[in-house]
């Protein structure tokens, strides 16, 4: 049988091919649009008229009712949400997202949430924002915490929002909890994260005032991943009054990004990976002196990690090193260390010294920051770290600019890396002829494979 290449499609010009798709696919397509747009699609044909009622998701945002052409009327949004929830009746809805830019305008908000829970919603997002003149606290309804269908919950909690769960039987099926905060209510932070019997993934992010006294109690016996990400405070000049008390025996991964160095109490856990960034936190003698116990407690909590990514300029400061004894990371195999140009090379030495079984090192250097560059040159340690002699097999250096310290560090690592197999040094802004000389100087007599790929900025 012969085949003709480039044969024409069987569709006729002007034919509506989308309407020819099965209902299940049309509903799937509509699930990626806002509910307002899904309702607008009803005018396309009689078949589309009630199609939006079968879509397993509802995206309800008052942003869809704002335009430059007319003044915003919150009553229009209230009427639309009331009608959308009423017409769905008792049918189950897989995912509901409700966004309100000014909750004071929406007295039916509690009723909307309760209706979603009665509809056996599986994924619920409440992106709620208060007005500048809202003084009465907004308390989330009890039924939210008691839902037996809810698996994913995303919340935005601002200053006057209260989410204090009942003392028992809360979130019985919740697997993912994602909470964005802005000057959060202290009582909520103490209790909200203590009632997830099957919670596996917890995200807390947003903004915490540096003058706040907050105690984050996290009790989750099945928690595997914890992400803590907070926007930078304006300035940190005193010891943080923020405590994270984490009781999660099955915790495997920690992602931490902040710049106020809270106090972390990580009970016995199963951590194998930690990604920690204090990129905006630089050394201050008064701050460091008062925060030594915070630093040590954090490292004691991650002492068993196998994979560590770290960016912490203040740890390379001599004042920090002299006051803080970091524990040995005996299980650490993979280290990714980011060094800003204000950071002392001593941080590299320190991490190599406390990681006797390190096999894989990624070193990113010359990262720009707002502080003055560190002028202390590279000083090799008195004793060669054990990992260089016996364990380190793979070395990657990024941000290499051919500066004297860059060269000396690379030479030292290759000289003492007796079991190195692969070395890759990524250079930036180094002329080819100069890089050839530098590469020969760095490699010396080491017989391992060394590559020098160039990356253009």
From TrEMBL:
<protein>
    <submittedName>
        <fullName>Putative F-box domain, FBD domain, leucine-rich repeat domain, L domain-containing protein</fullName>
    </submittedName>
</protein>
<dbReference type="InterPro" id="IPR053781">
    <property type="entry name" value="F-box_AtFBL13-like"/>
</dbReference>
<dbReference type="Pfam" id="PF00646">
    <property type="entry name" value="F-box"/>
</dbReference>
<dbReference type="Pfam" id="PF24758">
    <property type="entry name" value="LRR_At5g56370"/>
</dbReference>
<dbReference type="Pfam" id="PF08387">
    <property type="entry name" value="FBD"/>
</dbReference>
<dbReference type="InterPro" id="IPR036047">
    <property type="entry name" value="F-box-like_dom_sf"/>
</dbReference>
<dbReference type="InterPro" id="IPR006566">
    <property type="entry name" value="FBD"/>
</dbReference>
<dbReference type="InterPro" id="IPR032675">
    <property type="entry name" value="LRR_dom_sf"/>
</dbReference>
<feature type="domain" description="F-box">
    <location>
        <begin position="15"/>
        <end position="51"/>
    </location>
</feature>
<dbReference type="InterPro" id="IPR050232">
    <property type="entry name" value="FBL13/AtMIF1-like"/>
</dbReference>
<dbReference type="InterPro" id="IPR001810">
    <property type="entry name" value="F-box_dom"/>
</dbReference>
<dbReference type="InterPro" id="IPR055411">
    <property type="entry name" value="LRR_FXL15/At3g58940/PEG3-like"/>
</dbReference>
